[in-house]
Design goal:
The structure is a single chain. The protein contains 9 helices and 9 strands. The radius of gyration is 19 Å and the shape is globular. Helix 6 packs across helix 7 and helix 8 packs antiparallel against helix 9. With 275 residues, it is an alpha/beta fold. The chain has 2 domains: 170 residues, HUPs (Rossmann fold); 89 residues, 2-Layer Sandwich (Pantoate--beta-alanine Ligase, Chain: A,domain 2), CATH 3.30.1300. Pfam families: Pantoate_ligase (PF02569).
Amino acid sequence: MRLTQTKAELRAAAAIRPRAVVMTMGALHDGHAALLAEARERVGPDGSVLLTIFVNPLQFGPTEDFDRYPRTLASDLAIAKNEGVDLVFNPSRDELYPNEPSITVHPGPLADELEGVFRPGHFSGVLTVVSKLLHLTAPDLALFGEKDYQQLTLIREMVCDLDMDVDIVPVPTVREADGLALSSRNRYLSETERDEALVLYRALSAGAKAGMNGPDAVLAAAQAELEAVPSVKIDYLALRAPDLGPVIGPGEARMLIAARVGLTRLIDNISITLR
């Protein structure tokens, strides 16, 4: 496994095909390991897997946790090596943004909904860095977790609208045994807060079970679970079509939730079949 930290080093690295990339902000956990394992499976033993580690300042708001976001490069590299990563790109802020960017990716109207209401400008920062990293790594495949479902949806739209020659591969959310979605921010939770955070998955699961009774029943079932833990402050609970447009008729849908548990903000989602 080779570690590169400059764009010149990355360009000089062996260009083995097929090539898959997994983009992260570090603080890797089993969810990231699942992405890397899926990448290795898809490219086979003769392909190459690239991991990027970069805490992207453009996607953090002025009151968010950029400075305290965990940086754990040594353990990240150990996980990467264990999952068969060939190349790691870990640039500094100055390397990726030598100047304050004056041109960024405009993510369209979906970026102003759901997460965008609470994190204005977030998805412009996400799509700008994803676009840069796709250009620099030139992969055949890019893998993203479904936990960040709105992000995944917007990346798919960007790749389609801008005719980027890469396949976006979604990977299901990895959960703890009790259902809590894996997140680098889970480490901020106290023991009590972690127990409280389980209500997110209980609400999503209750909504999924109510799918046979239609959208109103789905939302009511989820809301009932959330009301049982008033210390968890809900930013939104939404039921959308798989492309995050409005739900129209029966079929597949996606329920999304964002909440604050103590000082930690968590998101989650689940696929639901509506009857």
